[in-house]
Amino acid sequence: MQVNSIFEGIEEEDISKMLKCFEARKMTYKKDRTIVSNIVNVKMIGIILSGTANMERYDYNGNRSIIEKLEVNSVFGEVFSRLESGISVIATSDCEVLLIEYEHIIKRCRKGCTYHSILTNNMLKLLSNKIVELNKRLEILSKRSIRDKVLSYFELLANDNPKRSFTLPFTYTDLADYLSVDRSAMMREIKNLKEEGFIKANGRKITLIKY
User: Fold this and answer.
1) 0.90 exceeded by the pTM?
2) CATH: 3.30.70.1050, 1.10.1040.10, 1.25.40.10, 1.10.10.10. Which one for 146-208?
3) pLDDT tens sequence across 76-120
4) Which residues, including other chains, have CB under 8 Å from residue 27's CB and lie 6 or more apart?
5) Which CATH topology does 5-134 take?
6) Secondary element (H or E) of residue 13
7) What are 151-191's pLDDT values in tens digits?
8) 105-109, long-range: CB within 8 Å, 24+ apart, which pairs?
9) Could you state, in order of their start, the residue ranges of all structural domains in the chain?
10) Is 155 strand, coil or helix?
């Protein structure tokens, strides 16, 4: 099993003991299957061990918003969400998920496990990281135009690569839902950005030239 950041500082041998103590369950899901249907009602923490998933929400008109892309080692659950109803986790590929009941983590271990406090501290760090990522998304969504939303998102991804090149983690359909914009209008803006020399694009591979 891959060591997740939630287990940072805990020996592999202790992780196995801890998962048994916490009665953790390993589940597999096929692509497009629902992992969690309403995250605020599920008192568990999920860890993506393999594959990918999206955290999604539908509004009253049936419009989908993608809250977050979940990849290997991503953590999800009520404590990591925006505490809104209607948020679901959907597998975007075949994936394997580790589920741990939240109650097992927040309660003091009856066996006095030395790694329990380490795991709690790791959870607080992850929660802090989630807040930072959410703020980044809110900053992108606050942009007034589709063009500015696209460029802001591309800038965010380009900052992680010295060559300013990256592969979009979403399909273009999912990207439109992540940015909460119309897909056709977004694709027109991306085409305009290419023609105006702001970006180079080959499928989902993007190079941000200027912003």
Assistant:
1) no
2) 1.10.10.10
3) 886 665 555 678 999 999 999 989 887 777 776 666 667 777 877
4) 35, 96, 97, 98, 99
5) Jelly Rolls (2.60.120)
6) helix 12-21
7) 999 999 998 888 899 999 999 999 999 999 999 999 999 99
8) 105/22, 105/45, 109/21
9) 5-134, 146-208
10) helix
